[in-house]
Amino acid sequence: MSLIDNTIVFVKEKLQNAEAGHDWFHIERVYKNALLIASDEDCDLTIVKLGALLHDIADSKFNDGDETVGPRVARAFLESQNASEESIVHVINIIENISFKGGNFEKKFTSKELEIVQDADRLDALGAIGIARTFNYGGFKNRQLYNPAIAPKLNMTKEEYKNSESPTLNHFYEKLLLLKDKMNTPTGKKLAEQRHTFMEHFLAQFYAEWDGEV
Predict the structure, then answer these.
(1) Which residues contact 182 (CB under 8 A, 6 or more apart)?
(2) Distance CA 190, CA 34 (A)
(3) Which of 7, 12, 20, 83 is the most buried (most CB within 10 A)?
(4) What is the mean pLDDT of residues 158-163?
(5) pLDDT at position 18, please?
(6) Distance CA 99, CA 48 (A)
(7) Other C-beta atoms within 10 Å of 158: how many?
């Protein structure tokens, strides 16, 4: 099998018991998003594919906040596949720089391939899928759906964002609604606009139902 085929098999096995918002199907959606975006970009498609497939191989949220696990797992796997050191370093840089981290995280690496995979990952945090993933994770963490007494906290530091336990609805304001203006590519921006609008309609309906108006 090819490197990409082997990577798919590896990721499916590694994430078979993962939380539903960060499981194989999340990876598959990001992979498809990345291929769609990459079709309009001048990029190394192999790096895009590997970055999309391995970007959440060991998310720090499920590893006691340790951000070194993902890169280590990815490196060990790619070395076992005899990938070039240049490719390995590029994929690890994507893994280390893709996350939102409160929106104040300054990327220490840039490449067209990172921009594509980052947009693909952010698209999966938007729209109908983004809403479903957000409430699934909130339930996984036993968080309140919404509490009018707890306001969203904007401009959080990376550590504040990682340790936040605020109600699930606050996450829309602390991350999801901010993503549209942080997209990198023309295709990513166009798709994000559509999904952003869907979330705005959802929030309007949510508040109307919460207040007994509809």
Answers:
(1) 103, 122
(2) 14
(3) 7
(4) 72
(5) 87
(6) 16
(7) 16
Give this prediction's pTM: 0.90
Which pair of structure tokens corresponds to residue 208?
Answer: 């109307």
Residue with tokens 């893709």: 98
**DSSP letter assigned to residue 153:** -
Ramachandran quadrant class, 153 (left: phi over 0; alpha: psi -120 to 50; beta: rest): beta
So what's the pLDDT on residue 88?
97
pLDDT of residue 21: 87
116 touches 43 (CB < 8 A): yes
Amino acid at 94: I
Helices (H), the chain: 3-14, 24-38, 45-54, 69-80, 85-97, 112-123, 127-140, 158-163, 170-174, 186-210
Q: Which residue has the tokens 């829309």?
A: 172
